[in-house]
């Protein structure tokens, strides 16, 4: 087995375990009579599903020797940023929050293991195609849409996935400030992940520095 196939097998394993964990937790969620839409309104669940699908698809394509192009590099970058922020935000703001029916091992896997694994995978096997920094606007679309959805839906049904999005805990001023901080953190994290991926990828492929800036090569 080649090294690339070995990494592909590990990626598939992590992706599969994550999807199984989310599936188990969804079953528990439904069993307690909770809303399915609420379940899929948690950024943690969405990000883990997204990252798991990216891992599984990439593992299959890599195993078959397929070249993963620039668009895939950006998609993978977005999944890395999302998972990094899942780990950071949970550790900073949510680790003491009541997690209800969330199983301890699934909590550990989704909030700790996967964020570390996804970031480590990016650093160990960086993308072979450079990501132009101007693509940051595409990368931040997902969290911005998520925040807008959460605030609009929360106001309509009086339910929020996370306490820091609930205006009842400090008013809309506090919520907007939190959203601004999250947006800035997401942009900063995206640029950092892009920079690391481009730099590490350049060391592996030997592509020119200009490729990581304007995307015209590599």
TrEMBL record:
From which organism does this entry originate? Arthrobacter alpinus
Designated name of the protein: FAR-17a/AIG1-like protein
> Which segments cross the bilayer?
12-30, 42-61, 73-94, 106-124, 136-162, 174-197
Which superkingdom heads the taxonomic lineage of this protein's source?
Bacteria
Which keywords accompany this UniProt record? Membrane, Transmembrane, Transmembrane helix
């Amino acid at each position: 087995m080649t090294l690339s196939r070995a990494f592909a097998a590990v990626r598939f394993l992590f992706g599969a375990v994550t999807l199984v964990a989310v599936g188990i937790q969804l079953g528990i969620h439904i069993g307690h009579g909770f809303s399915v839409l609420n379940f899929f309104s948690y950024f943690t669940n969405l990000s883990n599903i997204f990252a798991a699908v990216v891992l599984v698809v990439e593992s299959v394509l890599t195993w078959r020797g397929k070249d993963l192009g620039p668009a895939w590099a950006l998609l993978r970058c977005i999944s890395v940023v999302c998972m990094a922020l899942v780990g950071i935000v949970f550790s900073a703001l949510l680790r003491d929050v009541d997690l209800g029916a969330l199983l301890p091992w699934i909590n550990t896997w989704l909030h700790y293991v996967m964020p570390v694994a996804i970031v480590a995978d990016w650093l160990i096997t960086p993308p072979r195609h450079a990501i132009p920094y101007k693509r940051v606007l595409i990368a931040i679309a997902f969290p911005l849409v998520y925040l807008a959805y959460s605030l609009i839906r929360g106001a309509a049904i009086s339910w929020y996935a996370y306490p820091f999005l609930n205006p009842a805990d400090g008013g809309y001023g506090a919520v907007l400030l939190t959203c601004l901080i999250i947006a800035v953190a997401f942009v900063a994290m995206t640029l950092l992940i892009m920079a690391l991926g481009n730099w590490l990828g350049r060391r592996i492929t030997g592509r020119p520095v200009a490729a990581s800036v304007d995307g015209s090569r590599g």
